[in-house]
Amino acid sequence: MSSIESEIAGQPSCWRQAAEQARVAASSLPRSGARVAVVGCGTSLYMAQAYAAMREARGLGETDAFPASEYPFRRYDAVVALSRSGTTTEVVDLVESLAAQSLPVVAITADPTSPLATVADEAVVVSYAAEESVVQTRFATSALALLRSALGEDLTPAITDAEFALAAELPGAVPRQVTFLGVGWSVGVAQEAALKCREAAGMWAEAYPAMEYRHGPISIADHDTLVWALAPLPPGLDAQIAATGAQLVTTSLDPLAELVRVQRFAVGAAVAAGRDPDRPRHLTYSVVL
Question: How much is the pLDDT for 289?
Answer without folding.
Answer: 85
